[in-house]
Amino acid sequence: MLRTIRPGDIPAHITEACAQLRRAGHEAWLVGGAVRDLHAGRAAKDFDVATSATPEQMTAVFGRKRTIPTGEKHGTMTVLVDRPDGEREPVEVTTFRGEGAYSDGRRPDTVEFVADLVEDLRRRDFTMNAIAYDPLDDRVADPFSGRVDLEAGVIRAVGAALDRFREDGLRAMRAVRFAAQLGFRLDPETEAAIAPARDVFRKVSAERVRDELVKILASPRPSIGLDLMERTGLLADALPELCEGVGFAQNRHHAYDVWRHTLATVDETRLLSSDEQAATGRPAWIIRIASLLHDVAKPRTAAPKEGAPGEHTFYRHDEVGAELAEAILKQLRFSNEERAHVVHLVRNHMFWYSDEWSDGTVRRFLGRIGPESVGDLFALREADVRARGRGEDPDSELAALRAHIARVLAESAALKVGDLAVSGADVMRVLGCRPGRIVGEVLRRLLERVLDDASLNTKERLEALIPGVAAEIR
């Protein structure tokens, strides 16, 4: 049910900015996402003000010292308004405007300031984003029935959908992103206009596409947006490698084709909690991008399964997938740290535990994965198992390994060279040698022994082993 906005919902400094403009004889309305979210009963942030005042008139109202020309030629100014506690708060205020052609598929070639709120709302992308609210007189302006569409759960373009999508190439992806975030459906005319505007979408920078993809992945059900991307052709432009999995059959262990399994895996993958984000420095959606790409190489590594017509095996799809993921994430301008972690998860997502694993085997597993990445890898594997669609319980595969890992970690055993009780300096002292390849190789071989027998990891015992290990190398 649609919620009614009240003046008390609006932060005091936002209302004060509107009041100052009104006292000077100008119109002032709240517009955009905050108005939409308040109507939908969601938490609102990033309040934007639209006004009939020009940038010069805004400067006259708020004073030069409190006015920052953040986008003056497009009518946008940041004004500093006093909060009740005396602190100054920035408020973005934009002049009512109309726009010319978008030759670059991103920004209007020309901007014309207008005096009419409706003309300003007419240039916006979707009806739910073309609602304005006056917090001073407690009134709503909704010339394009955005509240009706909000209540119906429909994303509809303002005016002719093809015109809106050809103005800004990213709007098509914003449409599918809103569908995923809000659980809405696209108006049929709006959805039909996406494919004819793909040539404009292809002009959009990789960074902007990445940012929308991340928002889709952080949604309650990313599959809504990803499925729309595939249906409308946006996936073929943004992530063509994933299209290879559409309709590609797997085997009796999977109820879905590669693409449907991927969608189910992403939906099943949890977001990192705020505590996990703080502890690791990783974004909430990081495991979901790994889920999206974990089986990307299956179609390219597929081979007929012997004795099972129509089924496939996918030998080395994890290794080939890691290579593909590296290229895809680089193309989309993900950071080096994000790319490295996702590639690491994709490369290692196939593992099978049995009771035959020794403590040394578990330590080697932890040394390869890294204790800091095990939680993310298990979250990916849990989602992968559930998304097979056969009602399997991930704990049947993972519970025993979890317990074994916990026991090994409680022993505080060495998992990497840096955990050894000796250092490179110790190796050089014992051997009487200078820095060189042999030092690192001795340390690596000492680690192999400690992985098999954790009790060896004392300074005295490892130093006693150094001469013999060095002799093996020479």
Put the structure in a nutshell:
It is built from 25 helices and 13 strands.
3D architecture notes:
The protein has helices spanning 12-23, 33-39, 55-62, 117-122, 146-152, 161-167, 171-182, 188-192, 198-201, 206-217, 222-232, 234-238, 240-243, 258-268, 274-280, 286-293, 298-301, 317-331, 336-347, 359-369, 371-386, 395-410, 424-431, 437-452, 459-473, and strands at residues 28-31, 48-51, 67-71, 76-82, 88-95, 97-99, 111-113, 132-134, 139-141, 154-155, 185-186, 303-304, 312-313. It is built from 25 helices and 13 strands. Strand 8 (132-134) and strand 9 form a beta hairpin. The longest helix is centred in the C-terminal third of the chain and has 16 residues, at 371-386. The chain folds into four domains: 7-152, Beta Polymerase, domain 2, CATH 3.30.460; 154-238, Orthogonal Bundle (Hydrophobic Seed Protein), CATH 1.10.110.30; 241-411, Hypothetical protein af1432 (Orthogonal Bundle); 417-473. The strands form four sheets. It has a seven-stranded mixed β-sheet. With 474 residues, the chain is of the alpha+beta class.
Q: Which secondary structure elements does this structure contain, and how are they paired or packed?
A:
Layout: H1 12-23, E1 28-31, H2 33-39, E2 48-51, H3 55-62, E3 67-71, E4 76-82, E5 88-95, E6 97-99, E7 111-113, H4 117-122, E8 132-134, E9 139-141, H5 146-152, E10 154-155, H6 161-167, H7 171-182, E11 185-186, H8 188-192, H9 198-201, H10 206-217, H11 222-232, H12 234-238, H13 240-243, H14 258-268, H15 274-280, H16 286-293, H17 298-301, E12 303-304, E13 312-313, H18 317-331, H19 336-347, H20 359-369, H21 371-386, H22 395-410, H23 424-431, H24 437-452, H25 459-473
Parallel strand pairs: 2-5, 10-11
Antiparallel strand pairs: 1-2, 1-8, 3-4, 4-5, 6-7, 8-9, 12-13
Helix pairs in contact: 7-10, 7-11, 11-14, 14-16, 14-21, 16-19, 16-21, 18-19, 20-22, 23-25, 24-25
